[in-house]
From TrEMBL, chain A:
Keywords, comma-separated and alphabetical: Amino-acid biosynthesis, Aromatic amino acid biosynthesis, Lyase, Tryptophan biosynthesis
Active site as annotated: 48 (proton acceptor), 59 (proton acceptor)
Name of the protein in its database record: Tryptophan synthase alpha chain
Assembly with partners or alone: Tetramer of two alpha and two beta chains.
Organism: SAR92 bacterium BACL26 MAG-121220-bin70
Keyword Repeat annotated: no
Length: 255, 419
């Protein structure tokens, strides 16, 4: 089942799905596995596994630290793919690779898509790879049957959204506001009108991310987005209150 | 040769290198910048304003000096130096900064941000922001702040906010990332004054264009003073903006050999250097918005870099040079930290010049090669910055004991005042 079909299937029972995020190897792969267990229990639908990169220029302070610490502790691409494989075999949610383009570029685009496929991933998010540079990678992805996730943003013109819409497969990642990951977003009419604008250019499901941290944000997005994307808030909870805290966090979020 | 004519290829690409690799949220901002830059480049009035601003504010044109003593002592080629160290704020960085300051007026933005390594680009940007009335925030790695306090002092006193970057290696590359993070948040009123000919298109072209004033002046001056074109032109290469600046004056002169001098740090095989092209350690990658040769590992994560000169201590090289190097148009060599210290001492003693540690890398290669050349041959070195403002770094590099006891005395004095 493709990503879009999967999302539509899950949406039959619930009106707003959840995509969560972990940074591979931070604090450790053991911690990551525990986080995923909690996410699976809570019924999370999709998980992004971020492959750490030394120059994470689209990330906010917490993920910057996580990328840095993970690399410092010796995390490799092989370990990340191995973890992806174990996780995809064990949990019901679908998995996306998230990272920066250099990781894909260095191993070669064909190897990159084949390794995601072989590890049970269904797609990838590369925030620093613009659609102009993606044609070969998108072609390879189509052949392999995995999805490149396109980002749409508040600064994208309608002309730009049309180009992005044409390239989108599986789902779209709608960036709720300017800035980097991890700061609070004031959910308001502009987010709703942004998602509406994005929908005019593609039929794939819409995930909204950047600054989603609590049940109130979920309630706000219900009826507008298909998925809420939760990143920093979950890691923050894990750091401050561990497994039990994270269990409560997702229980409340998805109540 | 016009490397900026993209009509036969991809816009912003030099061979395989360059491009734009930025988050989607910046797409509109970089498009806006590109359109504005194209207008400025096509407008002769803009260039006239730029040149007269530099004449009135920064002391351009900077002269060329014949190093008669050094040439005689080495017994080979005649060595001339382009004196961009004589600019206001002490380096060529002001050229690019003033150009982008004018462009920022056309963009209608009121706030500027910049990364800085050694502090020279931050210092120049703070100066420009004070003159133009922009709000200014400079991102600087915590490690660099610790080794370049005098520049931080000036930036702050010129009214800029200096933010200490605590991520990664806490040096120049991390300051670039911090700027990107500010820019994706504040692009509506903020222009990012990138300091070198790196980063996403159109920055490599734009910075090279502003710096081309060095080469334009230098070609005319050397013809007048030496009576001929130089046989070789040497410039240090960190990101590569001063080298692009002077080399562009000679791109159409096939008889002129162009030599880029990178930071060899502790030397070949040490993995403690910043030589992307002169050594074999760098490979092609994509980071910080562009594709070029980076000092990185097999998985694409950046390696630690090192140089005695903070301004050369950087992971990537401008994409234009990656292309010109492949084409055989520019030769790349590296000078080690210890060679730099020796060349600096020699230049000070024989000529009374104090090149910045960065620029001294170019002197090393010229001093090495001059004796192998004929007496009627001509060498031109770009002295991109002056070293006297780097007194702390140079005193450290030269391990000057009298300086150390002076600083210790000064510290005692401050401590006593505190009590």
């Amino acid at each position: 089942m493709g990503l879009q079909a999967y999302i539509e299937e899950r949406k039959k029972d619930r009106d707003l799905l959840v995509m969560a995020h972990v940074v591979c190897g931070y604090p450790s792969f053991e911690d990551n596995m525990q986080e995923l267990e909690i996410m699976a229990e809570a019924g999370v639908d999709l998980v992004e596994l971020q492959f750490p990169f030394s120059e994470p220029s689209a990330d906010g302070p917490l993920f910057v630290k996580a990328n840095e610490q993970s690399l410092k502790s010796g995390t490799t691409v092989d370990q990340c793919f191995d973890f992806m494989k174990r996780a995809s075999e064990r949990f019901p949610f679908k998995i996306l690779m998230m990272g920066y383009y250099n990781t894909a570029f260095k191993m070669g685009e064909e190897v990159f898509v084949n390794r995601i496929k072989a590890s049970g991933g269904v797609g990838y998010i590369l925030p620093d790879l613009p659609v102009e540079e993606s044609s070969n990678l998108h072609k390879l992805s189509e052949q392999a049957g995995i999805e490149p996730i396109i980002l749409m943003t508040p600064t994208s013109s309608d002309k730009r959204l049309a180009i992005l819409g044409k390239a989108s497969r599986g789902m779209v990642y709608v960036v709720a506001r300017k800035g980097v990951t991890g700061s609070k977003t004031n959910m308001g009419d502009d987010v709703i009108s942004l998602v509406e604008r994005c929908r005019q250019h593609t039929d794939v499901p819409m995930g909204v991310g950047f600054g989603i941290s609590c049940k109130a944000d979920m309630d706000f997005l219900r009826g507008t987005a298909d998925l809420a994307i939760v990143g920093t808030a979950a890691l923050k909870t894990w750091e401050s209150s561990g497994a039990e805290g994270l269990r409560v966090f997702f229980a409340e979020l998805m109540a | 040769m016009d490397i900026f004519d993209f009509s036969d290829g991809r816009e912003g690409y030099y061979g395989e290198y360059g491009g734009v690799f930025l988050p989607e949220i910046l797409h509109a901002t970089i498009e806006e910048l590109l359109v504005c830059f194209r207008e400025c480049k096509a407008d002769p009035k803009f260039w006239q304003d730029y040149v007269s601003l530099l004449q009135n504010y920064s002391g351009r044109p900077t002269p060329i000096t014949h190093l008669e003593n050094l040439s005689r002592q080495l017994g080979g080629a005649q060595i001339y130096v382009k004196r961009d160290d004589l600019n206001h704020t002490g380096s060529h960085k002001i050229n690019n900064v003033m150009g982008q300051g004018l462009l920022c007026q056309r963009l209608g933005k009121r706030r500027v941000i910049a990364e800085t390594g050694a502090g020279q680009h931050g210092f120049a940007t703070a100066t420009m922001a004070a003159k133009f009335g922009y709000d200014c925030k400079i991102y600087m790695g915590a490690v660099d702040i610790a080794r370049q306090r005098p520049n931080v002092f000036w930036m702050e006193n010129l009214g800029a906010e200096v933010a200490s970057v605590e991520d990664g290696q806490k040096t120049l590359k991390d300051a670039v990332n911090a700027c990107m993070r500010d820019w994706v948040t504040n692009m509506a009123d903020t222009h990012y004054i990138l300091g070198t000919a790196c980063g996403p298109h159109p920055f490599p072209e734009m910075v090279s264009w502003f710096q081309s004033i060095i080469g334009m002046e230098a070609r005319e001056q050397i013809l007048k003073q030496a009576g001929k074109l130089p046989d070789r032109v040497y410039a240090c290469v960190g990101g590569g903006s001063n080298a692009m600046g002077i080399f562009q004056g000679f791109f159409d002169d096939d008889s002129v050999e162009l030599i880029g001098c990178e930071a060899g740090g502790l030397g070949v095989g040490s993995y403690m250097h910043s030589a992307r092209l002169a050594y074999d350690d760098a490979t092609v990658g994509v980071a910080q918005g562009y594709k070029t040769y980076f000092l990185q590992n097999d998985e694409g994560n950046m390696n630690e870099t090192h140089s005695v000169a903070a301004g050369l201590d950087y992971i990537g090289i401008n994409p234009i040079f990656s292309y010109l190097w492949e084409q055989g148009k520019v030769r790349f060599e590296a000078a080690t930290d210890s060679e730099v210290k020796e060349a600096l001492k020699l230049t000070m003693r024989t000529e009374g010049l104090i090149p910045a540690l960065e620029s001294t890398h170019a002197f090393v290669m010229a001093i090495k090669e001059a004796p192998t050349m004929a007496k009627n041959e001509v060498i031109l070195i770009n002295q991109s910055g002056r070293g006297d403002k780097d007194i702390f770094t140079i005193a450290d590099a030269l391990d000057d004991s009298k300086w150390k006891s002076f600083i210790a005395g000064k510290a005692d004095q401050y401590r006593a005042e505190k009590k």
